[in-house]
Amino acid sequence: MPLTRARISTFAFFALNGFLLGMWVVHIPEILDRTDASTVTLGYLLLLMGGTALLGMQVGGRVIDRLGSRAVTVAAGLVLSLSLIGPALATNVTGLAVALGLLGISNGVIDVAQNAQAVEVERAYGRPIISAFHAFFSLGGLLASLVGGALIALDVDVRVALGGAGVAGIALALAARPGLLRSTIAAPTEKSKARAPWTTRVVILAALAFVLLLSEGVAYDWSTVHLHDSLHASKAVAAYAFGSFSVMMTLVRLLADRVVHRIGAAAYVQRAAIVGAVGLLGAALAPNPPTAIVAWGVFGIGLAGCVPQFFSAAGNIDPAVSGTYLARVTGTGYLGLLAGPAIIGILTHWVPLTTAFAVPIVGCVIAGLLAPRALRPAV
């Protein structure tokens, strides 16, 4: 029963994270109007938010190693819930920048902390369960799109909408807190030595998280553009490309743990990453929108369960510094998520969009080839 409660509570924090970020995203147009910020300014603000999130991940990792993931997850969940109201209260670009900086830091901390708690719960279960946690993050985002869209349609003031979401987040964080596992702070091993070393395995885990989250970022920002610009689909039809990718990502994350339990993390990523490469290649070569929509879904099937395996491996290298290792791998992966869309955009100045997709396709193939070395059992 305690393990079941811990699993449910960790699900709650992943869903909370996805929901709160989703509520910010769906209200971006209204917040831009309130602050009189341009889309160019928004680009810089999102870069700021991404940078502070990276900072939060690294700080959060160190704090987790000292205080445990339970305390940090709850604290970050409360701060993230409180900070959600900031963008809604901003009336100018400076205020919005400060608000997004706080939102980014708290999001970075909870990202590492909830993954560290997920690794502890998975370790206690003795079998793979981490992919399902990430599915609940996606479900939280889906819920935000539905709730946020409904509130916008009802013309609810953005301050009320985000303030209400923040209050709901605080209530959920406090309700889920008792179920989280109490972290046992492990004594540093000879391997950890006060600071976690950048071993070859850690570098490979971080690099593969980078290339696969880079690929995921390409789907987020370029799937609809691909259908609209390259295949001349309408904007409404083009949206189905990202919808197909997102739905398959969520469904497969709910199922991936069973496959990983049966064949092992290394074998799973080997096969799944290649499926992802085939899916994106199919999208790039698709002759029409329906084929491309299916291919983007296959891309989602391939990527869905891969990155969680790297997070699990990082958290299990040395329990004494699991937070630091997780912060390094998640932080490097997050850089890929931010860099992927930009890299593709830069390449389109010289080559067609479908040709630029060669970068994530090759990245998926490399991830499949190196997965056995990165995901070998820790010794």
Overview of this protein structure:
The chain is mostly helical and 379 residues long. The chain folds into two domains: 2-179, MFS general substrate transporter like domains (Growth Hormone, Chain: A); 200-374, Growth Hormone, Chain: A, CATH 1.20.1250.20. It has helices spanning 2-26, 28-35, 39-67, 69-83, 85-89, 93-125, 130-153, 158-176, 200-230, 235-263, 265-285, 289-303, 306-315, 322-347, 353-356, 358-374. The radius of gyration is 20 Å and the shape is globular. The mean pLDDT is 88.
Compose a concise summary of this entry.
This protein has 16 helices and no strands. The protein has 379 residues and is mainly alpha-helical. The longest helix is centred in the first third of the chain and has 33 residues, at 93-125.
Key phrases:
single chain; mainly alpha; Growth Hormone, Chain: A
N-to-C terminal Cα separation, in Å?
30 Å
Number of helices: 16
CATH domain topology of the largest domain: Growth Hormone, Chain: A
CATH architecture level-2 label of the largest domain: Up-down Bundle
The total number of structural domains is 2
Please bin the fraction of helical residues.
Answer: over 70%
Q: How many β-strand stretches?
A: 0
Largest sheet: none
- Give the rounded overall mean pLDDT: 88
**Sequence stretches where pLDDT stays below 50 over 5 or more residues:** none
CATH homologous superfamily classification of the largest domain: MFS general substrate transporter like domains
CATH class of the largest domain: Mainly Alpha
Q: How would you spell out the order of helices and strands?
A: HHHHHHHHHHHHHHHH
This entry's quaternary arrangement is single chain
> Rounded to an integer, what's the Rg over CA atoms?
20 Å
What overall form do the CA principal axes indicate?
A: globular
